[in-house]
Design goal:
The chain has 173 residues and is mainly beta. The protein is 2% helix and 46% strand. The chain has 1 helix and 11 strands, in the order ββββββββαβββ. The strands form 3 sheets. Strands 2-3-6-5-4-7-8 form a 7-stranded antiparallel β-sheet, with no helix packed on it. A two-stranded parallel ribbon has the order 1-11. The protein has a two-stranded antiparallel ribbon with strand order 9-10. The two termini are 17 Å apart.
Length: 173
């Protein structure tokens, strides 16, 4: 049985009514194209009132190379801007790669992160390319629920990303 570990490190899974600088949450997914060539998608949620709109993001492909990828779609969801960025990358060999995106600022006034507006927003995923002749190619899980939710102090908070994997791998998150 194949196992796929999907790492989602949102900066925050809720947002506060107070508006400030911009990063709310996001995730990176990937799809195999051919050979060692993959397409990467960054789905990024930002505070719409922020002047720090991003039409491009930098992605680190985990093999020492970076790329600046452009936004291909923008969806306004109330006071949240959902932006989708895409880029392709070809790897040289089978290996484990940590793909990440780092943006300078999270939203302000996150209660449990002092000076959150001055903290970088970081998301990552792991791509493991094992011998494709024996094991095939992986694609990233799909997240069905929008990863934005509101939590209240002193109350139990549960959130389900409703992630699934179309190639049948077992997900643990």
């Amino acid at each position: 049985m194949k196992y796929k570990f999907f790492i989602l490190i949102p900066a925050i899974l809720f947002f506060l009514p107070a508006k400030a600088t911009h990063s709310l949450t996001g995730y990176i997914s990937y799809e195999h194209l051919s050979g060692y060539n993959y397409e990467f998608t960054i789905t990024y949620y930002m505070d719409i009132s922020s002047p720090a709109d991003r039409d491009q993001l930098q992605i680190n492909y985990g093999d020492g190379s970076f790329d600046t990828i452009s936004r291909i779609e923008e969806i306004i969801m109330g006071d949240v801007n959902k932006s989708i960025y895409k880029g392709t990358h070809e790897y040289a060999a089978s290996d484990e790669y940590i793909i990440y995106c780092l943006d300078p600022n999270m939203i302000d006034q996150i209660i449990n992160i002092d000076g959150s507006v001055n903290q970088p927003f970081y998301i990552q995923t792991t791509l493991i390319i094992i011998d494709p002749l024996l094991f095939g190619y992986n694609i990233a899980p799909v997240i069905s629920n929008v990863p934005l939710a509101e939590a209240s102090v002193g109350e139990v908070f549960n959130f389900n990303l409703a992630a699934y994997d179309s190639d049948g791998d077992v997900l643990k998150y």
